[in-house]
């Protein structure tokens, strides 16, 4: 699953959870719901941000020759190389490296985080969210 797909999935899950908690507690803003709202807002902002555009393309031919292009490698150019029997790979280059793939939690890790938070369900939301956040940071090298 790519980062964007994962963020969309997490966003939808959090929105459903937020509605569930509010309807279960029969109040619009149950305690701890601000954590859901903040996370939902962050995910929405990131998903609405434009995808970065490559600034150049690195072309490496199987023959060992390499080429750097500042214009996109068009389909017609690729077809021309392919018809000439050339084998190649094209790698887009960015000013900043693309984000690494997100590493999520296993069911067991989520259960452990839930077990670490103590108290009533509503009072457990914030410690549970913090435990999840800490575990995700650990699995994603502090990012």
Give an overview of the whole structure:
The chain has three domains: 1-52; 56-93, no CATH class; 103-143, no CATH class. It has 143 residues and is mainly alpha-helical. The chain is 54% helix and 11% strand. The chain has a three-stranded antiparallel sheet, with no helix packed on it.
Features:
143 residues, mainly alpha, three-stranded antiparallel beta sheet, 5 helices, 3 strands
Topology:
Layout: H1 3-25, H2 33-48, E1 56-61, E2 66-69, H3 75-83, E3 88-93, H4 107-116, H5 121-139
Antiparallel strand pairs: 1-2, 1-3
Helix pairs in contact: 1-2, 4-5
Q: Could you provide a short overview of the structure?
A:
With 143 residues, the protein is mainly alpha-helical.
Q: How is the biggest beta sheet arranged?
A: 3 strands, antiparallel
- Number of DSSP E strands: 3
Radius of gyration from CA coordinates: 22 Å
Strand fraction = 5-15%
Q: How far is the N terminus from the C terminus?
A: 19 Å
Count up the domains: 3
Secondary structure tally, helices: 5
The 3D shape can be described as: elongated
């Amino acid at each position: 699953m790519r980062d964007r797909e994962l963020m969309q999935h997490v966003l939808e899950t959090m929105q459903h959870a937020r509605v569930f908690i509010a309807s279960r507690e029969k109040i619009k803003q149950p305690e701890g719901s601000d954590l859901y709202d903040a996370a939902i807002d962050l995910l929405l902002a990131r998903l609405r941000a434009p995808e970065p555009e490559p600034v150049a393309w690195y072309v490496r031919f199987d023959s060992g020759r390499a080429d750097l292009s500042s214009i996109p490698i068009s389909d017609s150019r690729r077809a021309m190389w392919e018809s000439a029997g050339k084998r190649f790979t094209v790698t887009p280059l960015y000013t900043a490296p693309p984000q690494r793939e997100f590493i999520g939690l296993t069911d067991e890790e989520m259960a452990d985080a839930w077990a670490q938070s103590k108290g009533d369900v509503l009072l457990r939301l914030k410690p549970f969210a913090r435990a999840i956040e800490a575990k995700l940071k650990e699995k994603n090298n502090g990012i």
